[in-house]
Amino acid sequence: MLHSRLRPLPRHHHPSTPTTSAPAPEFQNEDADCEFDESPEDLFGTFLPHLFPDDAPSFHGDPGQHLLYSSPRYGDLNIMVPSYPSSSQQRPEADSSVNQVDEGRRLFAHFLWSAAMVVAGAVEEADTPTAPGETETEAQRENRELWRIKGESVLELGAGAALPSVVCALANASRVVATDHPSSPALSGAIAFNVEYNLARRSPTVVKAVSVYPHQWGLLDDSFSTANKGAFTRIVAADCYWMRAQHENLVRTMQWFLSPGGKVWVVSGFHTGRAIVAGFFETALENGFVIERIYERDLIARSEDDGEIRREWAPIREGEGTENQRRWCVIAVLKRRGE
Predict the structure, then answer these.
(1) Which of 48, 221, 229, 323 has minimal CB crowding within 10 Å?
(2) GO biological process annotations for this chain's record (predicted)?
(3) Does residue 300 form part of some domain?
(4) What span, in angstroms and rounded, lies between the C-alpha atoms of 22 and 40?
């Protein structure tokens, strides 16, 4: 199971780690108010999580906590969760009319999100050589083609703890740039720690391939944006979709930075419901993208041969309760129309 790779490190190893937990995000699930004509089978499916309470959390860790991500390919990775913003962290140059602390907290960067673990695990598996004498299955070949990152230039949007950026660097991407909103607490040390601690001790060359920049979606006239238009062959956007008002800005950013022939990896849980995720895909299609591939993946169970359990993407899945949504995520690949 994906989440079994993660465990907290002892707090005494990191004296600065806060001892209190952050409140869980209070997301509005847009599917919760929908009314469906539910069949007995649908109702049974809705209550399966209560009968078999496998937990599939959407996020992990507390602000400032260090988590051990156990990677079969790259060994143990020490991932620092961004600290919960406090008033002492407001930047002197920030606009005084905006409460930067509240802005930072609303970004929900102070967790490690499950969608980031999906990307990291998939990139790692694609970079893992087939064992001697083992025959690669068609599904494995397909996954390797989908997630192979060696030699690609990678931009991560809404990076938070930036686990996908760290793993992409270990998988020999030619360049990796982790970005988050200028108000994000992740830019106050967590991303820098995760990159330096996990990469510098392995290879100076690898760590030099990674950089970190603030970026506000849709604002493309700053020096970073103008210098990197069309510079990335892969864009990672994991759990970035709960703000419906930002969908168009997010798509503008993707279009701006994507190189000709490049692809965008969209990965999202359903903690805000299916409707808002489906709304993002509609916005992307209206603004020059096509969906090359899309499916849903079970975050808990694996098949008998240890492969992923998948099903077709459905923007509306009648009879699905919010509990059922937690164990699934949607994975999509976007490319520009006409390419």
Answers:
(1) 221
(2) methylation
(3) yes
(4) 38
pLDDT at residue 216 is higher than 60: yes
- Sequence letter at residue 129: P
Q: Which amino acid belongs to residue 270?
A: F
CA distances from 337 to 155, 239, 248, 290 (A): 20, 23, 17, 5
Instruction: Give 3-state DSSP helix, strand, coil % of the chain, rounded to 5.
Output: 35, 25, 40
Number of structural domains in the chain: 1
**CATH label of the domain that carries residue 242:** 3.40.50.150
CA 145 – CA 126 distance, rounded (Å)? 8
Q: What is the percent of the chain with per-residue pLDDT over 70, rounded to a whole number?
A: 77
CA angle (296, 302, 308) in 5-degree steps: 45
How confident is the model over 290-324, as pLDDT tens digits?
Answer: 999 999 999 988 888 878 999 999 999 998 887 78
Condensed to tens digits (0 to 9), the pLDDT of residues 49-95 reads 344 444 566 767 778 889 999 999 999 999 999 886 554 344 444 44
Specify the residue for token string 């780690």: 17
What burial class does residue 129 get, using C-beta atoms within 10 Å of its C-beta: 0-12 exposed, 13-18 middle, 19+ buried? exposed
